[in-house]
What we know:
Layout: H1 2-22, H2 35-45, H3 59-62, H4 66-81, H5 88-100, H6 106-148, H7 164-185, E1 200-214, H8 228-233, E2 237-238, E3 254-270, E4 273-280, E5 292-293, E6 311-324, E7 327-336, E8 354-363, E9 369-381, E10 400-412, E11 417-429, E12 464-466, E13 484-485, E14 487-489, E15 494-504, E16 511-521, H9 526-532, E17 554-563, E18 573-582, E19 605-615, E20 620-631, E21 638-649
Antiparallel strand pairs: 1-3, 1-21, 2-13, 3-4, 3-5, 4-6, 6-7, 7-8, 8-9, 9-10, 10-11, 11-15, 12-14, 15-16, 16-17, 17-18, 18-19, 19-20, 20-21
Helix pairs in contact: 2-4, 2-6, 4-6, 5-6
Amino acid sequence: MLQEKYVFRRCVWLLATVWCAATPIPGIAGRPATPEENAASIRAEVPAVTSTATGQLAANDLLPNTTDLLARADAAREPITGSTGPSQNVTVNLINRLVERGVLTKQDSQDLIRLAEEDAAVAHAQAATVQHDVAIAREAAQAAVQQTAPPMTDDQVRVTYIPESVKAQMRDEIKEEVLAKARAENWAAPNSVPDWVPRFRVAGDIRVRYEGVFFPGGNDNTGAFPIFNAINAGAPFDVAGTVFSPQNNVDQSRNRFRIRTRLGAEISMGEGFTVGLRIGSGQDNSPVTENQSLGLANNAQGGNFSKYQVWIDRAFLKYETGGQTNKNLAVTVGRMENPFWDPTSMIWSRDLGFDGVAIQAKYEVAKGITPFFNGGAFPVFNTDFNFATNNPSKFRSEDKYLYGAQLGTNLKISKDLSAKVAGQYYYFYNTQGKLSDPFTPLTAQDAGNTDDSRPSFAQNGNTYMALRNITPDATNGFGTTNQFQYFGLASSFHELAFSGQIDYNRFEPAQISLYGQWVKNLALDRPYANSIAVNNRGPNTAIGGVGAYSGGDTAWNIGIRVGKPAMEKFGDWNVGIDYRHVESDAVIDGFTDADFGAPLYGTNLKGYTLRGNLALSRNVWLGVWWMSADSIVGPPFKSDVLQVDINGKF
């Protein structure tokens, strides 16, 4: 009896061995997955095909696994079509052999065959279920591919094979890009330079210019264009004398070569703070230009290859937070760039620097709409501590200030169209000249108590008044001699301005820009100016009286530019034209454009400017300017200016 039980157990063990050999066991290395395993795995991923919220194909979820699912769906069929599975014939033959040898009874063999047939039926049913599930998964995957794959456009090519040479080229290009970025950002060799070096951003530029100033003829050369700045910068002028005052050249054409060079650095102090320093050239301390005429001997410099002076051009401390193109706040103190946006040079010269404190802010309130604000307070003139130097008793201060505010917005109207508009108000405090207390100067060194109300720098065009109230007596021939005089501005300046620019980028890289500006001096008092003006008057009356004040308080400028806004690579270009009309007392002439209308510059001018630029490389470009100007009121004046520049920057 024990022997029979042993034989039966051995038989069952043998059958189990044969069954396991015919049926792969999940999880054993080297054996393929069963149909049930494949079906379960695919079912786990197929639900990602269908969105639980919409019941539609969630193609974005399925697409990354599409290729894998299709491959596994094909593999899942293999046990059904190519694998033997639980074989009924092998089992029956084996059982019959065991019965013949007396290992099993006939009843046992029938029971085993019946159980094997039931297992085979179950296996076939499971295989059918798996095949059905695989078919559903395959159809869902194919549908997702068709739904998510974008249609091919005419300029697209599907690449199914990349040659090894192309792969190698791609690897080299990527490697170069990574190395270039590593060198630029200093993370390839982080200890190769001192820590302070990356905090410095050094920049500079140089411009070499030929300039020709030509006078068409017909200008008044009888002494009608005094240089008030030369009078006010030196000893007072005796208006009763027999010598002409300093006069502008209005009839002899001139040619000159000029340079402008600047070198500066901005140093990051950390935590939003930056220090800026810049030095620049200049044949004098003019605030509106840094040009140095080559060979010009003045102010004890230049001529015969003498050296030229260098000036402190920028020196500021800035705090900045935000640091984004659409969100930023900056506060700057010291000598800085013009903090106001200005599309023209009608109010502020391009080279002008501002002394004082400025606040600049911008914030995007909606997509494509970014309002901005610029404002500040700036000392224009500070009275000498010992004024007047040769008087034991001193005169009161004549300090002058500019208070300015600008409010505007950047507008992104469409993909190709953008605009920028702003309104600004500039309030100049105490810049108007003042009539002095009555006194009698015995020499040119005697000071009047309002001498410091004269502008410390001026160009030409503004209306002037005599500052000294000289008492006629015997010492001055009762007003016929020793009339030592300074001159101040006849008007206050409270300037209201509106600026705008529209950029159209449909033809990139070329851009079409329209820009303009309008300004009015709200402080001009015409009756008062008529009573004190020494220039900008109309023709004398028939009975010999002086003509009436003929100046104005309004200015405007409009222009168009086509091409690249900035010269960035060889072949970049732009051309432009603008027209301006600047009446005598619309703006302070000492701060406006220092090229238009040479040699008078300043205000009381109208005319056009043609210009073009062509890049010779990334950092070098040529520029050509032609400016034609006429006076608006007063004696006739015309001038044409040609400028040919070669510029370099780094």
